[in-house]
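Example record

The entry below shows one chain as it appears in the dataset: sequence first, then structure tokens.
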Amino acid sequence: MATIYDIISATPDNGTAALPPGEFEGPVVIGRPMKLQGRNTTVWARHGAVIGIESPGVTLEGLRVEITEGETSETAIKANYPTNVSNVEVLGTVSGFGGEDGMAEIPRTLALGEMSPQEENSFLMTVDIPAEAEIVCSQGGVTFVPDKLPAGRSEVKIIVAAPGTPGLVYSEILLNSAFRRRIYLSGRFSAGAPAVKDRVIFTAQNVVRKPAPSVPEQPKSICIPSVPAFVPSMGTGTPGSGVSVQGMTQERRKTTAELAAALRHAAEEKAPLVMKRGQRIPAAQLGESFSVYLTGVKLGELDVDPYVFMLDGNEKSVGDGGLVFFGNTSSPDGAVKYDSEDGHISVEPGRISPGVKRVVIAYSVYSGTSRRNFSLVKDPILSLYSGGKECVSFPIDGLTNEITIVAMEMYLYKGEWRISSVGSGYRDGLVKLCNRYGIEVSS
């Protein structure tokens, strides 16, 4: 089955990327004008943003977009350009859609409990929503007063008519604005149960809403720097001196259309696949082993060191050997190694021990001061090599004063290792990342 990345990559500018019914794992970034059209299709990710819009002229239609493990306050859809939406359901927040932005403080479920089958039952809920919406329910005998809500905080009365006989109530409630949000309703009509009168079943927390940020109307230029045709070296080769980020003497810039063509023909032409944030590929695509290099142009005196975290199912380090770096050059299973000659990381996914569920490759500036950070690294690119050839290139743009970045992750999905391009940073340096993964260090 084709992935969502395959479908989008094969879609021409201003074309339609048609997703069949089913589920597709994201996150995904849309960097060209097109329509992403689903048919009872869910696009999901563990955390947001599930869909990122990095181009004008994008339409989303017929989709359910949801965050599966994060909080509903996380951004499910982030648009940096005006984006058209039609029949799109969202679990999470949206950003870049004006009045639709922000948290919808609504329940995921409404459990009505036992109700009288002989008398009318009523309930109260208070919601806080970013934009005006209409409440729609497919269950007969369930009424909402009012059924059209303004933006902000509202009290809603739910009236459940008496059916006359015992039975179950199970239905789905939709709050329809420019987006659709879903609530599951359940209850039971029990013989002899008293009628419920105005029972409070949900009260929204107060939501402080910020003014919606302006969305740029003019398209930004998108330039993908080329990958240097050499392997970086550490210079001195001394352990602990860090990966020396080498200068690139030339830059090749691609238009968006050229990039799309390169992606479509990468397999035939043996050209490296250029990844963007959030894209994922099977690790098997790189063969039994691959090497990881970070390159770029240094704008000052600094060293950048790689750190590889071997994590269990709770995203905690698997032990003393769970951090691979210049002070511990190999994981206990030998699957991940740090090369002290040129500072690259080598990975053999097939050798990773069963207790490891996620591998995080990070880079940190050895600085001692916040003034030395990734703003001093121009055009950083993560490159994956296999069989002596560059297979994947991930330009990590948008970095400013981050001292530490997570460049990529490997994770198990249905028994197979997958690679995810991350490119997110921490301004607090390596200590915060170590503490997140259960490694106690002092700042």
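Notes for this example: The first strand starts at residue 16 and ends at 18. The first helix runs from residue 4 to 9.
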